[in-house]
Design goal:
CATH superfamily of the largest domain: Glycogen Phosphorylase B
CATH topology of the largest domain: Rossmann fold
Distance between the termini: 41 Å
Largest sheet: 6 strands, parallel
CATH architecture of the largest domain: 3-Layer(aba) Sandwich
Strand order of the largest sheet: 8-7-6-9-10-11
Length: 292
């Protein structure tokens, strides 16, 4: 199985999880040749615990780049009926329907490109993929939050910085969403006094906004790596998720450990594709989204 890897850690985990759909063959990872500076390849730690990965290389060679551009022609020209022909010729398969649980592996010899974001796909692969991810996280240093009492702490993920330029489509969740989520957890547990710990990609902005919440601690990217952020969220007993794939993985892992997780619904403000319930896995607690 050949899979293209791009985006941040959350996206990369969806992609490598999808590659575990077919376990009769090894997994080959093909990396974005020109990633954003804040979106490097993040699966090195994971590859140390995944016995399925046999190759990691860049998509930068000219032949691969040409084939990707060639494969995108039917969609660009709206000649969708030619997609299968182009796929067979180029040996590249593009994800046809984003946020769908019906996506499958078209041809093991093809390079598969897409995000493959749906909770049911992850659940289907969990028997193979889950233990590898959990082993990776077990090896991540968690001493930065060793003093946190998770029984009386709500961990809140706030995504800010990289959403500023797409706030009209993806949307930035407002303080109202976070306050509703905290209130729900208080009602469900009967605990009124929680410590609130925030993890974010934009510590300075969150500190300025303050979100009208009594935040006791804020962790930013200078203090925690993406993997450390994911591990903290996964260990949380009570977690409020942002509209971020990294946040989603934190909530999914927390729920696997019987944590209470709140997720925004709808996921995006005004996205051009139907997201539906792709991120709302069973056992999660949807909170009506409000955007700033």
């Amino acid at each position: 199985m050949k899979i293209g890897i791009n985006g941040g850690l959350g996206n990369q985990l969806f992609q490598v999880s999808f590659a575990h759909l077919e376990m009769d063959s090894k997994i080959e990872l093909y990396l974005d040749s020109a990633p954003r500076s804040d979106r490097p390849f993040e699966l090195k730690e994971f590859s140390n615990f995944c016995g399925h990965i046999s190759k990691i290389e860049s998509m930068g060679n000219r032949f691969v780049t040409f084939r990707i551009k060639f494969m995108r022609l039917p969609k660009k020209l709206k000649l969708y009926f030619l997609s299968d022909f182009f796929s067979n010729f180029s040996k590249i398969t593009l994800e046809k329907l984003p946020f769908s649980s019906k996506t499958g592996i078209a041809n093991e010899e093809n390079l598969h490109l897409g995000y493959f974001q749906h909770w049911a796909l992850v659940e289907k692969n969990w028997i193979h993929f889950g233990p590898e991810l959990q082993s990776t996280l077990a090896n991540i240093n968690g001493t930065a939050w060793a003093d946190i009492d998770f029984s009386s702490t709500i961990v809140i993920h706030v995504r800010q910085g990289d959403l500023i330029n797409v706030k009209n489509t993806m949307g930035i969740l407002s303080s109202e969403y976070y306050k509703k989520a905290v209130s729900l957890i208080q009602e469900e547990t009967g605990i009124k006094e929680f410590k609130l710990v925030v993890v974010t990609d934009d510590k300075e902005r969150v500190a300025q906004l303050n979100y009208d919440l009594a935040i006791s601690r804020i962790y930013g990217p200078d203090e925690m790596t993406a993997w450390e952020t994911l591990k903290l969220m996964s260990e949380s007993r009570y977690l409020v998720c942002a509209n971020s794939t990294l946040s989603w993985w934190g909530s999914y892992l927390s729920a696997k450990n019987e944590g209470f997780v709140a997720l925004p619904n709808p996921w995006f403000k005004n996205w051009h594709e139907n997201v539906g319930e792709a991120f709302l896995f069973p056992g999660s607690n949807p909170i009506e989204s409000s955007f700033s």
